[in-house]
Design brief:
This protein is 24% helix and 28% strand. With 246 residues, it is α+β, with helices and mostly antiparallel strands. The chain has a single domain (4-195, 238-245), classed as Gcn5-related N-acetyltransferase (GNAT) (Aminopeptidase, 3-Layer(aba) Sandwich), CATH 3.40.630. Strands 5, 6, 7, 8 and 9 form a 5-stranded antiparallel beta sheet that branches. A 4-stranded antiparallel beta sheet has the order 1-2-3-4.
């Protein structure tokens, strides 16, 4: 398909439908409380950092979106609480009137019926170009590896640096980033933390959540920790930090 990629600032007509795409995200992934510090104000405060893609043959129908957030780095560190950290630091910088000195990718989401068509590589390239145009020397990304959910018990520190015979990452999503010029740096062991009552988790997943311990959840990169006595479950998702020099 022919892809037209612009910023949300350039195409404000997409603001109302930005989150309405049919996507492959598991329901539980939409319940990280830190996310509200970005997504609730993304269309009003971060329109220059949100990319939207549509097909000129289907004008007005969103094919993909990509979100970034400017934040305050600390001597270029890549925090262990990756995704949550950059959103929190971005929010604190905005609320405190400080000028961010770094920019992080947050997501690239492809419409479900277009998955597997190579659009993600175009969105990564567009995100890199946009970050450079905004004056940043690098784009960092707490990447959610696309195949890790098939190995929830494999340590992410092992998975992150696994390669194929050609030297590229084993994980398909990491390969997209590396082919675009990114470099796998380290693991963010607690990049996202999603907690809820057992009733909430049952609603998000359709699973019983009636046994203590580690529970495998479809789409989760690691098991979810369940405490039946105290009626809660906690998911701590690891991501993989990638640096994109620009």
């Amino acid at each position: 398909m022919s892809l037209r990629i612009t910023t949300l600032a350039e195409r404000p007509e997409f603001a109302e439908s930005l989150w309405d795409m049919d996507t492959a995200w598991p329901e539980f992934m939409l319940n990280d409380p830190i996310a509200d510090l970005f997504y609730a104000v993304a269309t009003s405060h971060y329109a220059d950092y949100v990319l939207v893609a549509d097909d000129p043959a289907e004008p007005g129908r969103l094919a993909a979106r990509a979100c970034m957030i400017p934040f305050t780095a600390r001597d270029g560190d890549l925090p262990d609480d990756g995704w949550d950290a950059v959103i929190r630091r971005g929010w604190l910088a905005r609320e405190g009137g400080r000028t961010p000195d770094a920019v992080s990718a947050l997501e690239i989401t492809i419409r479900k019926d277009l998955l597997g068509g190579g659009l993600s590589a175009h969105m990564v390239a567009a995100m890199r170009a946009r970050a450079a145009r905004l004056g940043f020397a690098e784009l960092v990304a707490p990447v959610r590896p696309s195949q890790k959910h098939l190995e929830p018990h494999t340590p992410t520190s092992e998975y992150a640096f696994r390669t194929r015979g050609d030297g590229l990452p084993y994980d398909a999503w990491l390969r997209v980033h590396v082919r675009a010029g990114g470099r796998v740096e380290k693991v963010a062991q607690r990049s996202m933390t999603i907690s809820g009552t057992l009733g909430e988790w049952r609603g998000w997943t359709g699973l019983p959540f009636d046994v203590d311990g580690a529970v495998e959840v479809p789409g989760a990169l690691v098991p979810v920790h369940v405490d039946v006595t105290h009626d809660h479950a906690v998911y701590v998702e690891p991501n993989i930090w990638v640096r994109h020099p620009l």
